[in-house]
User: Fold these one by one.
Assistant:
Number 1:
Amino acid sequence: MSGGALPIGASLQTAIAVEGLVKRFGEVTAVESVSFEIRRGELFGFLGPNGAGKSTTINMLTGLARPDEGRIWIGGIDCTRNPKAAQHLTGVVIDESNLYGELSGFDNLSFCGALHGMRKAEREARARKLLESFGLTEAADRRFVAYSKGMKRKLAIAAGIIHEPEILFLDEPTTGIDVASARQIRQLIADLRSRGTTVFLTTHYIEEAERLCDRIAFIVSGKTVRIDTVEHLLQPVKQRHVVQIAYSGSNGDVQRKLAESFPDLRFQILSAGLIQVTADRPIPVGPLVRFLEDRGGEVAEARRMRPSLEDVFVEITGIEADAMRKEKEKSGGGGAS
Amino acid sequence: MNKWIAFWNILAKDMRTYYLKPPNISWGLIFPLAWTGMFFIKSGSDAEDMLTLLPGVVAVSILFGTTSMLAVTVTFEKKNRSFERLLIAPISLGLLMLAKTGGAILFGIANAFVPVILALFLVDLSSVAWEAFLPAVVLIAIASTFLGLLIAVAVSEVFEAQTFSNFFRFPMMFLCGLFFPISQLPVFIRPLSYIAPLTYGADILHGAVYDANVMPYGLDFAILFAFCVALFAVSLRQIKRKWIA
């Protein structure tokens, strides 16, 4: 333990503590008074849309940016003034696969081990082991530049953990990669957590955060609007009933007509031909289907939905889930399938 | 944590991925050869003139070998964000940048010996004061590399690094007394000569090769060393200000 005193409530079990973090870029305030604590061994999700301040926060925590205000403790070390002080405890995987294109996968891992002071025999043995567990043994001698996007991301994660850090920062680890690789990476993250590594994960995939994280912070426009466990976050929507109905036929003023006929249900047109029905009691699907078909519509599917973190996120942040989906599409795949 | 493992591996990685690549080796050989040949022909092929040309050719070879290489490699790594990997490594920024510049310094020193080896076959170098020549070569390489670092911090694109390097290098070739004395320059230009580190390095080389230094060695070395320290300190300050903002 060194540097300034930890914030109130923090203990030896605190892996990361952040208090009143602010970062400005000229007139723009990218991060505005962000505070949180992460316990050792916890998988903490930092969830928000693009431009919410996730990467800026992770940059300040890893020493790639200096906060304008606030304080940072990592592993009990005050890193506010000296971001290098705790870098021996951390591993970082940024949102781009920034390894060396000219080096092979094996050499990249070995080099990253050397950056953390690992001796040759130790880092090479660890590199081989990681390549094997990440399914990259056959590509070990191939130059990084020739790797696919998914392979690049997996190798970047391997490079981030080659020195077995106590704390791992993962910035958008599954953005822009294929579904199979994204799934494999999620499994790797879960494995790291089960081995006791503290993981700070930023993502804009709500389902990914829900599936992986112990606790989640919602960040919007540089401010954390809610921090809680997934279970607590889901509590308010657990009793909620949701049905999505896919049908063909004119939308017209179907939403208004449905609302008039079923006043105790809430209706939302998600997209052309897709209606979401919400209620605090079980929803009678039959009458709804008949109502639509009587008005010339053809119902293709009516599905009961499990209330999800997405609903909570929309409720708390006011950001439509659709906007998050569009970001997902724009960033090129992956997803939390 | 053994930070020297990191230091050595950064240096070795740069040597392998940048400086020992065939295009750079050929540049390191061809450039000094071309300069030597050009001046040799211009001077009327008198072998003894080689001796007076040697300091200038050595200095130019170092200057061109180091500045652009470092500026380009650092800008390239900054652009593709692999430089961030170094910034998050648990070694001090000073040691990191020394490792990063070490490859260019060694490359510059190696470049300096291409014309020297060539000259060995043409003229008698037994009168050269190697005890002044060698440290001067090292200090010129360090100062030129740190100048390249300062350029790298000032630009964001690789092509800008090349352009900006030339903005400094070509005037220095004529201002620093490499091929003709500073005293032959117009009076109003001469102050510019004395704000360029190469002037002091070239003066030591002129003295070491054919006893024609204008200033005492001690002063030349002190100023050249001060330039190295100042260029490195300013570069580090700029890196902290711009890259870890």
Note: Chain B has ten helices and no strands.
Number 2:
Amino acid sequence: MEFKTITYAKESSFLSPEENIAIIKLNRPEVSNALNKDMLGEIDTALEEIRRDEQARVVVLSAEGEKAFCAGIDPKEPSQQELEQRAEQLLKKIEEFDKPIIAAVAGEVSGPGVRLALACDMRVAAENAKFQNPSDAARRLAKMAGRPGAVDLLFSGRAVEAKEAENVGLVNKVVPTDELLTTVNWTAGKIASSAPLAIRLSKKCVNKSFEVDIVEGNKLELDAILQCARTEDLREGIRAVFEKRSPQFKGR
Amino acid sequence: MFLMPYKNISYNKDQNKAIIKLNRPEALNALNQETLSELGSALDEIRNDPEVKVVLITAEGQKAFSAGADLKEASSLDEAGVKELIELGQGVYRKIDDLPKPVLVAVNGIALGGGVEMSLAGDVRVASETAKLGSPEVNIGLIPGWGGTQRLPKILGKGKAAELILTGGVIDAKEAERVGLVDRVLSQDEFTSTVNRMASAIAAKPSTDRAELIQLIKSV
């Protein structure tokens, strides 16, 4: 598939020669990778392709260039409001996507770009990452701060640099800028090597944890465990523990 | 009050402190059905005991707090058995959660899967510097099923919780403290004495407010 505003590729990792990591790269560095109508459409198309691709187990969302991850919505777009709505639909799709999505964030992140990063399941940031006014992404932000006190800082309304973002839980990890993609490849490779059903259901249960109480949440977990219990992968996983070897999951 | 005899855990009272210890060190305190049931009974005793002002949950042995679900037992179960085991663990951990008394969990070594999930149901967590913690369920084709996917995101934040669960990674005590999985790390030789002092401090000033408890255990 040919894309104009993004690039799409697949990658293997040190854990497997299989190209099981799908990489979407925002590719409009000349405008700080701002989102326009075409780009939103192309990300959506790429995600649909990944959804159908059984080999692809995990997604990395990154951006071309080190200066900006995403500057939000392109101010040149004629209908800002319509684009805002389309962006929000895409973010929802990213959150609910049946494969985990890792954001690899370098440089400036602003406006809906912050929301884009936060919609992903986790974020690895380069040292030069800077989140402009993350409090714009209030609803998603509130879920990121586990530590008491972190919420206050996140909602202070000022820009948050990489190190601080790491301390409050806005990003998972900060690494030197030139190590960003190898670090993300490692994390993605690890996820891609686990049983796909367990990964999909884990993501779903974690997402739901902010919407349901513990009794309801426990029911979701039980349902997920019973689904896993019917897979060949779980039997293989348990055998591998007793035989002290790495499991060979087949995705069934 | 009469204390029930237990086989897989020990339950003792020291003045107003209730102390539960997982007691299968030879099996790395792996959680089988009997252990979970006994834990549930001890929690019922504690709930109804007006003397108890604080609960300390920890484990016997130097190596492990708990290696998680007893895989040998679990892998022998049919679907109905799996359902029963999951609901048993979920129910017992909700008892920890629902206890109207502060619960301090002292992670004295390895805590994996169901072991970590037990700690998450408590109000505050401390770990020995040699402890290693993780939710490695996906590595065998499972998900955390005893509340881990629900409690972890609220304690760590969604991103960190997703990372720990989806990568199945195991982290050391220092990293666990950095990400908020434990509230304080103690050196091995001062572990038991400090944990006891913490429990006494909480008993003297009982609260289930997490921020208050964290402050209290950091001052001991």
Note: Chain B has one domain: 9-219.
